[in-house]
Design goal:
Layout: H1 2-20, E1 25-29, E2 36-43, E3 48-53, E4 58-63, E5 68-74, E6 82-89, E7 93-102, E8 105-108, E9 114-117, E10 120-124, E11 127-147, E12 154-172, E13 180-187, E14 190-197
Antiparallel strand pairs: 1-2, 2-5, 3-4, 3-6, 6-7, 7-8, 7-9, 10-11, 11-12, 11-13, 13-14
Length: 198
C-alpha cells in the first residue's frame, strides 16, 4: 500500500508539472512492472506519435485521435540496448525526445529535447511563398517540381542555403499554365513536401 501511495503522489506531481507547461513532456517509470507512462498535456487530433531507433526505423506509430491530454503506458524494457527517440509530429513542428535502454533500464534526457519547426509553404495568386525558421543553424535545400502533359515530375528549381536559421523565398509562376507543383524543403535529413495545383 505504501508503494502504491508513492506512485499516486508521483503521478500527481507529474500532472502538476504538465499543467504548468503545456508543451513539456513527463515520464513516470513504474518500478513494479518496468513500464513507462508517456504523457503530453497539449496534443491535437492528427498528430503522429512514433518510436524510432538510432537508424530512424519506425518501431511504433500512432495517430492521436483527440485534442487535449494524452497518456499511455509503454514497456520499453523489451527493446534491445541502444538509443531511441519518441517523436511527436505536430502540425507546425516535430518534437524529439531521446531515451536510452541499457540492461532494461530506460533513461530519458529532457535536456536533449529538440524541436524542429516545419517550413511554411503557401500559395496565392500563382505565387508560392516558403519560409523556414529554427533556433539552430542548418543547411536548407528547396526544390520545385512540376507535372504537365509533356513532363512528369520535372525539376524546375533547386537551391541550397548553408548554415542558416532562416529562409524566405517567393516564386511567381506562369499564370497560363494548368499544372501541379511540388515543393520539397529538406533540412537536417528531413524532407517536407507540399503540393499545389494552379
Amino acid at each position: 500500500m505504501k508503494k502504491f501511495t508513492k506512485h499516486i503522489l508521483a503521478l500527481a506531481i507529474v500532472f502538476a508539472t504538465l499543467s504548468s507547461n503545456a508543451t513539456e513532456i513527463a515520464f513516470l517509470s513504474n518500478e513494479e512492472d518496468g513500464k513507462t507512462i508517456l504523457m503530453f498535456d497539449n496534443v491535437s487530433q492528427g498528430d503522429q506519435l512514433m518510436v524510432k531507433d538510432a537508424f530512424g526505423l519506425i518501431l511504433y506509430k500512432e495517430a492521436i485521435l483527440e485534442n487535449g491530454k494524452y497518456n499511455k503506458s509503454f514497456d520499453l524494457t523489451t527493446l534491445p540496448d541502444g538509443n531511441y527517440i519518441f517523436e511527436l509530429d505536430k502540425q507546425n513542428q516535430i518534437r524529439v525526445y531521446p531515451f536510452t535502454v541499457d540492461a532494461t533500464v530506460v533513461t530519458f534526457n529532457k535536456a536533449q529535447l529538440t524541436v524542429v519547426n516545419k517550413p511554411k509553404v503557401t500559395s496565392k495568386d500563382n505565387t508560392i511563398y516558403i519560409t523556414a525558421q529554427n533556433l539552430e543553424a542548418a543547411d536548407y535545400t528547396i526544390e520545385i517540381f512540376y507535372d504537365s502533359a509533356k513532363n512528369a515530375n520535372e525539376k524546375i528549381y533547386s537551391e541550397t542555403f548553408e548554415n542558416t536559421t532562416t529562409v524566405g523565398k517567393k516564386f511567381k509562376l506562369l499564370e497560363d499554365k494548368d499544372e501541379t507543383y511540388e515543393v520539397v524543403v529538406t533540412a537536417n535529413g528531413r524532407s517536407f513536401i507540399s503540393t499545389f495545383n494552379f
